[in-house]
């Protein structure tokens, strides 16, 4: 046989024998990315340590129905739902986000930046549940038991039914769960606990996956609601494998500026409720206090009218929040005028300035513009464009808007004022806070009615809105 024929026969034999030639030999367990050789970091999702060897397809199914079942399959109408009812935690704002409270066996992951108040909030929840006579197990892996005790004294969360343990070993944590049989379990945090049966340091991909799976299995088996604190990365996502967010039932994000008292809790995943609710809290020296009515934090206490200010109403989930936008326009000698924002989207400001100059007749090419929100509020909703435009135009012309005025509407590149969602809720919140005049997009009253005692003015474009906002008494021109 010739050399060429031998090579062809060898290649054909390898192909027919199920060789892995031509097929990648490694796969990412997080996103399924494949590679021909092993790498430490996935090239698709950028996760470290998630690339493992691909075992390849098997000849047939390896799992057969030999394990005993938990019980026979029953009609869905015969399932008892009382055990799946949510139980309030005692913190109304957290219950709002969770969908009414904690469901037995539910696992909630609470993530946020360092110092945002995660541990303080969950310790307060644990103290409230324990004060009702229900045993609570609080396991800390980041602090000593004495440090947690000092924080509990500061926020008033001391209770004999609150059991505290400082552990970093997964086996010890599961042992505490079995010995205490609590009605609520809190772990701070999931990245600090490790299993001796898994290689790697605490917080690694393998360790976090093993710890989360074991705790979730224990919570489901015993019907114990669990609150897990999670770290976040630089971009704000939950640290560890992506499967952590898939395994838990609820994922909550705690947000807040470092120099602001306001803390917001949002649910990015919720198997027991909606994901468009927002909980508001105030970070004080005595802990995290819930804010059923946080609108007052975002309004200034100035009693006289100042040019360059305008109030809008934003929607955080289903909740309307009033926010005041302030702008300062000053002449400059620089070739590139400054555009500085705080609490606002810089790209939205640039667009509003361009529309004001081109469509509204307000020159901005030789002026510095500074725009900010009051109280550290974060306003990125397009519905705040009109309030921002009125504030900037008022500062540029040194003319204030009429007293008691709010404005909401999206500004388009053609200068038109576009409709916004939730107009009725915005108007009702503004009237509750005492505002008497509202500037809204044209045609908005066809879908929403004006609250009693409030004058609603419809603006066709930015130029028209500026005239309406400066008309004494809020009369139409």
TrEMBL record:
Record field: compositional bias (Low complexity): 1-13
Region of interest (Lon-protease-like), ranges: 368-477
Amino-acid positions noted as binding ATP in the UniProt annotation, renumbered to this chain: 112-119
Keyword DNA repair recorded: yes
Domain RecA family profile: 83-232
SMART domains: AAA
Pfam families per the UniProt record, alphabetical: AAA_25 (PF13481), Zn_ribbon_LapB (PF18073)
Region (Disordered): 1-21
GO cellular component, one term: cytosol
Keyword Zinc-finger (UniProt): yes
GO molecular function annotation: ATP binding; ATP-dependent DNA damage sensor activity; damaged DNA binding; hydrolase activity; zinc ion binding
GO BP: recombinational repair
Keywords: ATP-binding, DNA damage, DNA repair, DNA-binding, Hydrolase, Metal-binding, Nucleotide-binding, Stress response, Zinc, Zinc-finger
UniProt motif RadA KNRFG motif: location: 269-273
Xref: HAMAP family: RadA_bact (MF_01498)
Function per UniProt: Plays a role in repairing double-strand DNA breaks, probably involving stabilizing or processing branched DNA or blocked replication forks.
Family, as annotated: Belongs to the RecA family. RadA subfamily.
Domain notes: The middle region has homology to RecA with ATPase motifs including the RadA KNRFG motif, while the C-terminus is homologous to Lon protease.
Name this polypeptide is given: DNA repair protein RadA
Organism: Actinotalea fermentans
Gene designation per UniProt: radA
């Amino acid at each position: 046989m010739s050399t060429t024929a031998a090579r062809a026969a060898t290649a054909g034999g390898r192909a027919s024998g199920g060789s892995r030639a031509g097929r990648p030999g490694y796969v990412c367990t997080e996103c399924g990315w494949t590679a021909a050789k092993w790498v430490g970091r996935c090239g698709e999702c950028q996760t470290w340590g998630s690339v493992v060897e691909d075992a390849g397809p098997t000849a047939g199914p390896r799992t057969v129905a030999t394990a005993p079942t938990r019980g026979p399959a029953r009609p869905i109408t015969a399932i008892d739902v009382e055990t799946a009812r949510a139980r309030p935690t005692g913190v109304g704002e957290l219950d709002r986000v969770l969908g009414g409270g904690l469901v037995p066996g539910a696992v909630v992951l609470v993530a946020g930046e360092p110092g945002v108040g995660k541990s303080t909030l969950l310790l307060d929840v644990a103290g409230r549940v324990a004060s009702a006579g229900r045993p609570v197990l609080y396991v800390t892996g980041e602090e000593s038991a004495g440090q947690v005790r000092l924080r509990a004294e500061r926020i008033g969360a001391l209770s004999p039914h609150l059991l505290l343990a400082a552990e970093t070993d997964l086996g010890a944590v599961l042992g505490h769960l079995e010995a205490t049989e609590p009605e609520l379990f809190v772990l701070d945090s999931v990245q600090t606990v490790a299993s001796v049966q898994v290689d790697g340091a605490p917080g690694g991909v393998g360790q976090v996956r093993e710890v989360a799976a074991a705790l979730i299995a224990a919570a489901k088996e015993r019907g114990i609601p669990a609150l897990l604190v999670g770290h976040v990365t630089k971009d704000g996502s939950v640290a560890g494998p992506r499967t952590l967010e898939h395994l838990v039932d609820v994922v909550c994000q705690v947000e807040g500026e470092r120099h602001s008292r306001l803390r917001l809790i949002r649910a990015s995943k919720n198997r027991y409720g909606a994901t468009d609710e927002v909980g508001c809290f105030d970070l004080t020296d005595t802990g995290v206090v819930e804010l059923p009515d946080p609108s007052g934090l975002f309004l200034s206490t100035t009693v006289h009218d100042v040019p360059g200010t305008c109030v809008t109403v934003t929607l955080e989930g289903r909740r309307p929040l009033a926010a005041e936008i302030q702008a300062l326009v000053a002449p400059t000698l620089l070739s590139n005028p400054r555009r500085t924002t705080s609490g606002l989207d810089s790209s939205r400001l640039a667009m509003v300035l361009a529309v004001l100059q081109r469509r509204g007749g307000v020159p901005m090419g030789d002026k510095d513009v500074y725009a900010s929100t009051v109280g550290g509020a974060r306003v990125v909703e397009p519905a705040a464009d009109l309030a921002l435009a009125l504030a900037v135009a008022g500062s540029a012309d040194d003319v204030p808007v009429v007293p008691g005025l709010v404005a909401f509407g999206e500004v388009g590149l053609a200068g038109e004022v576009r409709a916004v969602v939730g107009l009725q809720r915005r108007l009702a919140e503004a009237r509750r806070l005492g505002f008497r005049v509202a500037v809204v997009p044209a045609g908005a009253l066809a879908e929403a009615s004006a609250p009693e005692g409030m004058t609603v003015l419809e603006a066709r474009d930015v130029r028209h809105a500026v005239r309406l906002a400066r008309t004494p008494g809020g009369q139409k021109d």
